[in-house]
Amino acid sequence: MPSPEDDSSDPTRPHDLDVVQRWFQAVVSHPSGVGEGVDSAQAQELICLKRDELEKVVRSTRRFGASERLSVYANAYYARLLECLGESFTVLKHALGEDTFNEFAFGYLQTYPSRSYTLNRLGEGFARYLDETRPRSSGTEPLGPDWPDFLIDLARLEWVIGQVFDGPGLEQEDPLDYESLQAIAPEQWPQARLKLAVCLKLLQFSYPINDYYTEARRAREGEKIPLPEARRQFVAISRREYVVRRYELSEPQYRLLESLQAGQTIGQAIECAAEILDADDQELAVSLRSWFHNWAAEGFFQAVQE
Amino acid sequence: MSQPKKSMPVSRLGHPNLGLGVGLRTTHFSYILEHKPQVDWFEVISENFMDSGGRPRYVLEQICERYPVVMHGVSLSIGSTDPLDFEYLSKLRALAKDIKALWVSDHLCWTGVAGRNTHDLLPIPFTEETLKHVVERVRIVQDFLERPLVLENPSTYLMFSESTLSEWEFIARMAEEADCGLLLDVNNTYVSSFNHELDPVEFIDSVPHDRVVQFHLAGHSNYETHLIDTHDNYVIPPVWELYQQAHGLTGGVSTLLEWDARIPPFPEVHAEVLKAKKFMGERLQKPGPLAEEDLVPAQPMPQGASAEHGRRDASWVPHPLHHIVPEVR
């Protein structure tokens, strides 16, 4: 605690603008409110004053005191950011309920306060935060000790959806269609590489997150969708005509696309899928024709890479 | 009420008077593209589009082909002691060039320090130190953007005890010394004046009128001890009166209505800004009682902003920010 003789923290002397701003930010972003914010070690190091001395820094009027004035900013800080996170993770919020979601989001904002000029990045670290903290619900945990994995998966899905929605896409150019794929000479297929659409994201989950996401979005007001049992699920997220689309994949499909996305040849990618696909050569060929036809129709491919 | 000056020369830094415009909001995207309303111009939130590669940017480009557009930012943080963010400024400059924005504005405030962003428009002390700091940064930003900056007076809920200048003195000197433009938010003038028990008429009288490039109008919420700039309601009669005063003193500049929460359908928002026509002209006397349609409809009084639960409910926050929600199938 600085002594009253320390000019830099003396509330009665003009302060450097930097000191005022750091003090203000420490006070209004304190998790326990303005009073605790003023008392905090961080604030006291900057401007040493008691709660009833706020008028030394903030003008007050009879009808609206200094503490109340600071509280407008303090409450707005969390209200605004919690609302933003709630809109970024609507299904996670549904799964947790508003109070628990806000509890976790509040903790997230303490650990990862925004450092970007855009609110669009506010939730960037939320899945990581849930993974780091593996939070426990204040009530019973219906999915047992792996409940946080469900939350993390859901947060990952919703974050990726947001990124795909407003990230780069192929709407201003023609994706590679099936006819163009067929134009690749058969003998060149094994060595050819495909550039996947810039907006295509591949995700694997420990829970059927995509199904839960669909059910939760269809839920009526007040209806709670039961949390699912663990089951691996593979999903592709992409965008066509500016709308985000979700595709459930089998594990062989996922491995094939993952391999292509990593820059492997079509031949190598097919081998990855074939290793885990229980099919003979003819069945594999039929499956591959169907997969590539459907994926091309959905705009998964951008170009054949030389 | 002050008497508007006669034959007021209009500078607006050479910008045109675009007429009556509306803030572009996601909820109105489809309506605007389908109906192509006869609105004079749009203001867009810079941060919503500078990184956009999806539908928001596509819609913006469609709108720019048809309507004049200006950019309005919320993260420039011109008053912060953190270094200017040149990555941000580069994107701002690029967007302005791409969409041919007529001007670029932001707020006289800071949004965070020590690398953080509170995403709020935080107040600055009105001192010689702050003035010098802000002027220097405005000059740097203007050089980088290769155009004058236009700065808005934000709504404020506190003033610092060490302020030695009034807000209007600060703004006037900043505009002259930095050679920048002003976005005179008439609702913010009313809100801040109420909150600090100051005279909004004096504020309007005292800002440099030839540097005003644009007006903002908006609704707010009344909590009796203070007002909050919630942008979720009609413009109230006292704010229209201030607008009339400002219009007379400036000779008329581009006017924009902000409606950012509980947003009604586009025609209703447009109709609200069109009311401004009633407050333009050469009237030198205080206007008489306003017509019924100009009065604010009764709204339920929301909970106080300083209550503990105020953290959990964002319906009352000042100048609500915009987060675009994805369209998903």
In short:
The complex is a heterodimer of chains A (306) and B (329). Helices cover 49% and strands 9% of the residues of chain A.
Features:
heterodimer; A: about 300 residues; mainly alpha; Outer Surface Protein A, domain 3; 3 domains; 3-stranded antiparallel β-sheet; two-stranded antiparallel ribbon; 5 strands; about 10% strand; disordered N terminus; B: about 325 residues; alpha/beta; 8-stranded parallel β-barrel; two-stranded antiparallel sheet; 9 helices; about 30% helix; globular
Give a description of the structure.
The complex is a heterodimer of chains A (306) and B (329). Helix content of chain A is 49%, strand content 9%. With 306 residues, chain A is mainly alpha-helical. Chain A has a 3-stranded antiparallel sheet. Chain A has a two-stranded antiparallel ribbon with strand order 1-5. Chain B has 329 residues and is α/β, with parallel strands linked by helices. Chain B has 9 helices and 10 strands. Chain B has helices at residues 29-35, 55-66, 86-99, 128-145, 167-178, 186-196, 200-206, 237-250, 266-274, and strands at residues 20-23, 41-45, 69-72, 104-107, 149-152, 181-185, 212-218, 221-222, 227-228, 254-258. Chain B has an 8-stranded parallel barrel with strand order 1-2-3-4-5-6-7-10, surrounded by 5 helices. A two-stranded antiparallel sheet of chain B has the order 8-9. In chain B, strand 5, helix 5 (167-178) and strand 6 (181-185) form a beta-alpha-beta unit. Chains A and B meet through helix 1, helix 4, helix 8 and strand 4 of A and helix 2 and helix 4 of B.
